[in-house]
Amino acid sequence: ATGKTTLAVDIIKAAKRSKNITGNKVARITGEAMNSKPMQEVIDNSVGGVLIVEEAASMTADTVRKFSAALENTEGKLLVILEDSRERMMLLLEMDNRFREKFPAIIDLPPYTNTDLVAFAHSYATEMGCTIDEMGVLALYSKLAEMQYQSEVIPTLYHVKELINEAMEKAKKRKKSKSSLSSFFSRKKEKTNETVIQEKDFI
User: What pairs with residue 29 in β-bridges?
Assistant: First the structure.
């Protein structure tokens, strides 16, 4: 885990203590997924614990209004954490004043380093049933540097997920198209069904 991950866990623990939330339930959902999920279902599945909304600014204004109204009935039994970049978060909170009032604390963390982002990429790829080989890791570092210096974009976890998802699709297509008459050594190398993301998958 990166230092920011450890810090996030510590923040959650402290916030739970301050709100007397004793449950260990931690639910994660993206802002985009919030737009299509029944709001009451999301709340009911999270009450008594923590709800983390990643890429929260992807929520539409209508979702924000519904979310705000649903939170009125939780009576302090739910800790909600919104995650996104500072700029996007400010735009999100400006959508609805009552929603903004429900989030009095804003913690501004410094941007992730490329090492943090690659560590997250490894974790995310593993979660999706894939691994990234050494040359693939170097290609990912190059992609991140390209975003920073050529496109002048500060990479986030959202960008890393997009890069891994695209590379994973290429890796899976390559694996599927492999001839069933693979050599003995190729079969021996891939003992499992794990998909290996390589350098070419980031190009």
Answer: 53
Q: How far apart are CA 16 and CA 22, in angstroms?
A: 7
Residue at token pair 């890796």: 171
Measured in degrees and rounded to the nearest 5, phi and psi for residue 25 equal -70, 130
d(CA 67, CA 80): 11
Q: 129: which residues sit within 8 A by CB, 6+ positions away?
A: 193, 194, 195
pLDDT digits (tens, 9 = 90+) for 96-132: 999 999 988 888 777 788 998 999 999 999 989 999 9
Q: Report how far residue 102's alpha carbon sits from residue 75's, in angstroms, rounded to the nearest whole number.
A: 12
Taking the model in full, what pTM does it have?
Answer: 0.60
Q: Which two tokens stand for residue 81?
A: 């954490």
